[in-house]
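Reminder to self: C-alpha cells first, then the designed residues, so the page reads top to bottom the way the pipeline ran.
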C-alpha cells in the first residue's frame, strides 16, 4: 500500500514538471503587446472635431480599451462603446490601429485620455486634450441700453466691459474712427492716448468733444476677436453762433442767412424776425438744417425776392431740456450803382496816318514839258528824295540847265533843258566843278498834300543848299590833300 502511494506521488511530480516545462517554454516564445507611438496632445477650438490614435502590435488575445483618466470612466473596449455619449465613437482598421473620435468638442471634454491593453500588469499610454474658447463679451444690460454712458458736461462716465474665453481674454478700449481718448485727472491734467487696457474705462470731467462711440475689444489668441460699442453722451445747453452778424443784399435778390448750433440732447431750432414773428417754409422763405456731427447743426434761412420790408434783424434760436440760446443777424440793403440807359460807344484810340512817300521816277534823259502842275509835283518829289540821297554823296557836281532850274547831279550829270528834270542836251557838261550859283526856286503850287508836308518843303530846300555847300568845300579839301600827297612822293 505504501509502495503504490510512492509510485503515484512520483508520477504526479513528473507530470507537474512536464507541465511547468511546457508552460515555461510557451511563455518564452509568445510576444507581448507593445505601443508603436505615443498619444498626441491635442488643442482644439470648441465646436470642432478631434481624434486620438492608438497603435498596438502583437495584441494577440488581449483587448484595447479607452478611458477618461480624470474620471476613471471606461469609454470603450475594442469597438464596443461603453459610455452613453453620442459624440464619442471608436474605429479599428483591422490590423493594429484604434481611434477614439470626439465630435463637436465641448469645454468639458478637455482632460487626459488613456489607451489601455488588459495585460497583467496592464499597459497604457495617455494624451491630453485642451479645448479653447474664443472670447465673448457679456451683455449685462438689455440690448440698446447703456449704463453710465450718459453725463452732463463736466461729469464722469464709467464704462464696464466683461469678457469670457479660454484662455482668459484681455480687454482694450479704443475710440471709434481712430480718434484720441482723453483721460483726465482731478488735477485738470489730461493724457491723450489711442487705447486703454482693462475692463473699465473711466472718463472724468467729460466735455462735448468726448461724445461718440467707444469700442471694447476682447482677444485671447483664439480667433476671432470680438468687440462691443459703447455710446458716450454728454448733455449741455444750446450754444448758437451766427455765420455773419451783418449781411447786405440788393432788392429783388435772394439772400442766405446761416447759424451754427451746438447742443445735446437734440434741440428744437427755428427762425424769427425782430418783431417775434416765427418764419415758416414757403414761397418767401426756405428753411433747412444739416447735422454736422453728434452735437452740431447748421441752420439755413433763404429769403427770396427781397423788398424794403425784408430788411432788418433776423434771429435764429435753439432750445433743449437744459437751456435756450439765440443769435441775431442784421440784413441791410445793398445799394448798387444805377444801370446805364444807353450802351456807351467803346473808345477807339485814334491813329495818326503817316504820309505815304511818293516814289520818284526819273526820265533818264527824256525831257517832258507837262505843264505847270506836273512840273510842280515832280520838283517836290525830286527835292524830298534827294534830301536822303545827299546823306551819302561823296562829291557833288553842280550844273545849271540852259532852260530850266539849277539841279544837283552825281558824277558830272547835267540838268536837262526845259522844265523837265534830268533832260538831255544841257550846257556846261563834262564833269567840271563850278561855283554854285544862287538860284531861286519857283513858288510852290498848292497841292492836295497835307499842310505839314507843304511847310516842310522850305526846310528841305534850305537843308539841300547847306549840304551842297558842305559837299563843295569837302571836295576842295580833298583835292588839296591829293596834290600834297603827290608832291611828297615825287
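Designed residues (490 positions):
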Amino acid at each position: 500500500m505504501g509502495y503504490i502511494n510512492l509510485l503515484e506521488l512520483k508520477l504526479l511530480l513528473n507530470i507537474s514538471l512536464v507541465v511547468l516545462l511546457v508552460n515555461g517554454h510557451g511563455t518564452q516564445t509568445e510576444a507581448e503587446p507593445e505601443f508603436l507611438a505615443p498619444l498626441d496632445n491635442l488643442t482644439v477650438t470648441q465646436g470642432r472635431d478631434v481624434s486620438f490614435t492608438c497603435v498596438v502590435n502583437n495584441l494577440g488575445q488581449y483587448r484595447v480599451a479607452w478611458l477618461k483618466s480624470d474620471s476613471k470612466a471606461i469609454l470603450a473596449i475594442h469597438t464596443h462603446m461603453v459610455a452613453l455619449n453620442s459624440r464619442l465613437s471608436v474605429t479599428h482598421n483591422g490590423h493594429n490601429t484604434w481611434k477614439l473620435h470626439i465630435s463637436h468638442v465641448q469645454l468639458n471634454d478637455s482632460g487626459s485620455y488613456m489607451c489601455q491593453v488588459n495585460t497583467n500588469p496592464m499597459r497604457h499610454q495617455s494624451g491630453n486634450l485642451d479645448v479653447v474658447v474664443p472670447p465673448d463679451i457679456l451683455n449685462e444690460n438689455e440690448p440698446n441700453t447703456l449704463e453710465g454712458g450718459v453725463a452732463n458736461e463736466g461729469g464722469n462716465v464709467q464704462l464696464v466691459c466683461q469678457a469670457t474665453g479660454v484662455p482668459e481674454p484681455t480687454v482694450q478700449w479704443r475710440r471709434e474712427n481712430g480718434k484720441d481718448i482723453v483721460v483726465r485727472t482731478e488735477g485738470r491734467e489730461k493724457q491723450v492716448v489711442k487705447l486703454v487696457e482693462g475692463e473699465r474705462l473711466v472718463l472724468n470731467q467729460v466735455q462735448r468733444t468726448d461724445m461718440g462711440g467707444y469700442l471694447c475689444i476682447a482677444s485671447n489668441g483664439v480667433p476671432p476677436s470680438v468687440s462691443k460699442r459703447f455710446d458716450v453722451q454728454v448733455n449741455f445747453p444750446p450754444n448758437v453762433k451766427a455765420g455773419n452778424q451783418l449781411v447786405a443784399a440788393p432788392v429783388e435778390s435772394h439772400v442766405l442767412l446761416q447759424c451754427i448750433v451746438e447742443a445735446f440732447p437734440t434741440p428744437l431750432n427755428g427762425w424769427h424776425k425782430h418783431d417775434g414773428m416765427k418764419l415758416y417754409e414757403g414761397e418767401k422763405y426756405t428753411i433747412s438744417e444739416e447735422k454736422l456731427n453728434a452735437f452740431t447743426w447748421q441752420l439755413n434761412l433763404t429769403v427770396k425776392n427781397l423788398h424794403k420790408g425784408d430788411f432788418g434783424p433776423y434771429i435764429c434760436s435753439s432750445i433743449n431740456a437744459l437751456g435756450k440760446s439765440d443769435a441775431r443777424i442784421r440784413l441791410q440793403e445793398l445799394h448798387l450803382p444805377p444801370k446805364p440807359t444807353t450802351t456807351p460807344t467803346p473808345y477807339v484810340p485814334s491813329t495818326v496816318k503817316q504820309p505815304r512817300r511818293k516814289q520818284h521816277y526819273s526820265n533818264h534823259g527824256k525831257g517832258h514839258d507837262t505843264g505847270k502842275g506836273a512840273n510842280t509835283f515832280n520838283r517836290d518829289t525830286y527835292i524830298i528824295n534827294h534830301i536822303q540821297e545827299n546823306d551819302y554823296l561823296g562829291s557833288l557836281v553842280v550844273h545849271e540847265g540852259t532852260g530850266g532850274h539849277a539841279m544837283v547831279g552825281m558824277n558830272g550829270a547835267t540838268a536837262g533843258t526845259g522844265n523837265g528834270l534830268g533832260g538831255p542836251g544841257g550846257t556846261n557838261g563834262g564833269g567840271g566843278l563850278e561855283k554854285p550859283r544862287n538860284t531861286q526856286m519857283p513858288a510852290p503850287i498848292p497841292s492836295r498834300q497835307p499842310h505839314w508836308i507843304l511847310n516842310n518843303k522850305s526846310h528841305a530846300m534850305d537843308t539841300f543848299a547847306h549840304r551842297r555847300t558842305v559837299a563843295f568845300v569837302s571836295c576842295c579839301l580833298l583835292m588839296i590833300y591829293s596834290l600834297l600827297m603827290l608832291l611828297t612822293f615825287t
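Helices lie at 2-29, 372-389, 451-489.
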